[in-house]
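QA checklist item 7 of 12: single-chain prediction sanity check.
[x] sequence parsed
[x] length recorded as 255
[x] structure emitted
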Amino acid sequence: MSVADDRAASAGQSQTRSPRVLSVARAKAQTQAEAWGGHDSLVQLRPDLHDVVDGGPPKPLRGLMMILLVLMAGSAIGIGSAALVIQGERPFTITSLGPWTANPYAGTDKADPYSVAIYTRSARVPLAQGEGLALTAYDDSSGRPLSPDCTYEISGTTPTARLWTLTAANDKGDLAATMAGRTSLASPGLLRNEDGSFQITASRTPSSGNWLPLANSPDVLEGLSFTFRLYDAPVTTGASLEGAEMPDIRRLGCR
């Protein structure tokens, strides 16, 4: 036999598998298909492949670990976002009247959980519905953040109330020492115009008329806020705040 005939014979043998090898390959493919639930792609594997793809159904422990990881990640994100929210000082359910904001549901069973957490963390007790309403400003009427190093004029009128107070604090509600030894004004001792309106000057140094003292050392404060607290007022007993008027806040100058 020639060399060419030998090569042709070898090629023919390499292209033909014995019946026993083909039978084993088909059996392995069928076994894998049944293990994977009878997937058609495994049944259609070429029978002359000796090494069937090695695999199997997902292990229960691996699936359980994935579920635990997802639950842990979700819990961490939820707890972290909630902690970040309650670190703030401003509740969600607020009503705005110019630069003034109020939370009419504070102290009631309608208060949202985040607002309750904010008040609890800061150890503040909100006025209950029917007792009063607090309105706080962090910006002036032009939208600029209040600064303890500036002088402001607070002018206009407030909703009808038996008594109200105006307090100056930082943006977290903390009080600071002032030249006059006080940080608030009360309506009974207020000088008013003939139409009932008023002008209040908020500054570090004394001012004629109605003076609201600000902190002696504004550089140690974190921002500034003004808070009106209206006591025994119709707006705190269910009447709508819509249409109510609150004073304007105008910046006169800064040092």
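[x] summary fact logged: Residues 1-5, 7-17, 36-43, 45-56 have pLDDT under 50 and may be disordered.
[ ] second reviewer sign-off
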